[in-house]
Structures are given as C-alpha cells and as structure tokens.
Amino acid sequence: MTFIDKLSAAWAANDSLLCVGLDPDMARLPAQFQNNPQGIYQFCTEIIDATADLACSFKPQIAYFAALGAEDQLEKICAYAKENYPHIPMILDAKRGDIGATAKQYAREAFDRYGADAVTVNPYMGSDTVEPYMEWSDRGVIILCRTSNAGGSDLQFLKVDGKPLYQHVAKLVAEKWNANGQCALVVGATFPEELAQVRGIVGDMPLLVPGIGAQGGDIEATVRAGRTYNGTGMMINSSRAILYATQQGGEDFAAAARRVAQETRDAINAHRA
Ligand SMILES: O=C(O)c1cc(=O)[nH]c(=O)n1[C@@H]1O[C@H](COP(=O)(O)O)[C@@H](O)[C@H]1O
C-alpha cells in the first residue's frame, strides 16, 4: 500500500485530518518520564495510544530525539506504532536536503531504520537531491513549500518571474517531481491565503499543514483554504498543544492529550464540508 493510499484510508477510518506531532521536550515531560532512560519512549507511546483513533498520522520530529541521543527510542516508537496501529501513517519530520549520495543515506535512515511511511524534505538543493527518496516508490516525500514561521518569507516570498518562490516550488512538485504520485507539500496554517494559492496550483495533492495550536493558526481559515473537493487533502499538525495539554488543565497527561486531540479533530471537521 502506498503512503497516499494509507493516508486516504486513515482520513476515512478515523474521520480525521489531524496529525499528532511527537516533539518530546524533556523539560516539559511529566516528572515520571524525566531521568528515565526509556522516558521518551514511554511518554510517546502513551500519547500514541491516547490519540490513535483520532489521528490521520503521527509525526515525530527527529531533532527532539537526536538532541538527546535518543534515536533508539524513536526506532522503538516507530516499531510500536507500526505493530499496534499499522493503518496510521508515520511521518518522519527530518527536513533533509543534501547531494544525491548523501540523500540516499537519509532516505535509508527514514524508510529503513525508522520504517517511516513518509519524510519531510527541503527542496532548496533541487531535483537530484529529492530523487533518492522517490526511489522508495511506496513512501511519501513531503516537500517544504510555504513554511509556518515568519522568517519563511525571507526566501519563499522572493519574486521570481513575477511570482513568489513558494508558488514555483508548488508548481515544480505538482508538474515534475510528483510523477509517481508520492509527493505532498508543507504549507503553514499560519498563512491561509498562501495555503489557498497552493491548493489552487496542486489539485488534490496532500498538504502537511503545521501551525495550529501553539503557533496560533486559525483552524477554520486553514480548513477552508486547504480542503479538497471531498473535504480531505490535509494532515493538519499539532504538537505542543496536545503533548503538553496537562499544563492547561491539570488532568492526567494522556487524558488531557486525548481531550485536546478530540477537540482539535472536531474543530477541523466542523469546516470540512
Ligand atoms: O515540517 C514540519 O512539520 C513543520 C514545518 C513548518 O513549516 N512549521 C512547523 O512548525 N513544522 C513542524 O511542525 C511542528 C509544530 O509544532 P507545534 O507548533 O508544537 O504544533 C514542529 O515539529 C515543527 O518542526
């Protein structure tokens, strides 16, 4: 089954466009997971269990693991999710970008070592640097287009032939790089107008849309701008607002994460039609 097929099935099975981000920041984990050699694994798998019926995907951000030398725990988390929730796609957020020979190793890392269904990739170095990921034809390649951060405008908004650079990226991916139908694009929820522009360029290509929750993106505007004709087409990511929901309420962290994930999924669904 390809990444896109798996994602479509997860949208339908869980009636959800919500991507639950796994960004385990040691300083914010509940006390029982700190100074615990398997604490990150235990925290993330409890979050996965609490939200798996509400999510269309999970997205671990590799920096949160690598910074602590906890890649072995990330491997175990990916294996756990695959074993227990094989129908939910796992997106490795690594934002890789390098020459082909090196990209080949990054692709092995994402797809072989972690068994990810898809990986985030930076397009800045061009077509030969994304080809090694495309060779894994059943996996997804999610390319940065219009990122959620303010500084994304520094380069992505530069006018090239009268159009902002991010629109050229969207067109290039839709018309050339997506020959095998395995591509998706990253577009921030913090920029709904640009999200609508990208949707207009790429047809029904899936979009990974971070920026709701902690970054303050508006859910209604995001869904209206990015949905496809059938009310799908997006993996709308929220990480910190779900992972650290206890700080907002004082409940058990997994129950609080579930509550926020459910509220977020339902808020998204309210605007899909
Ligand atoms: O590729 C991403 O996932 C990504 C792209 C982008 O433009 N902005 C963005 O915030 N992200 C990631 O999405 C997550 C957002 O986390 P929260 O702001 O806590 O919901 C982080 O893991 C970011 O690294």
Total number of domains: 1
SS content category = alpha/beta
Order of helices and strands: HEHEHHEHEHEHEEHEHEHEHHH
Ligands in the model, by name, code or SMILES, are:
orotidine-5'-monophosphate
The overall pLDDT, averaged over residues, is 97
Give the N-terminus to C-terminus distance in angstroms.
27 Å
Radius of gyration using CA atoms only: 18 Å
Q: Which quaternary structure do these chains form?
A: single chain
CATH class: Alpha Beta
| Annotated CATH architecture | Alpha-Beta Barrel
Sheet having the most strands: 8 strands, parallel
Q: Key terms for this structure?
A:
single chain, 273 residues, alpha/beta, TIM Barrel, two-stranded antiparallel sheet, 16% strand, binds orotidine-5'-monophosphate, orotidine-5'-phosphate decarboxylase activity, Orotidine 5'-phosphate decarboxylase, RibuloseP-bd_barrel
Report on the architecture of this protein.
By secondary structure, the protein is an alpha/beta fold. It has one domain: Aldolase class I (TIM Barrel, Alpha-Beta Barrel). 46% of the residues lie in helices and 16% in strands. The strands form two sheets. An eight-stranded parallel sheet has the order 2-1-10-9-8-5-4-3. It has a two-stranded antiparallel sheet with strand order 6-7. α5 links the parallel β3 and β4. The protein binds orotidine-5'-monophosphate.
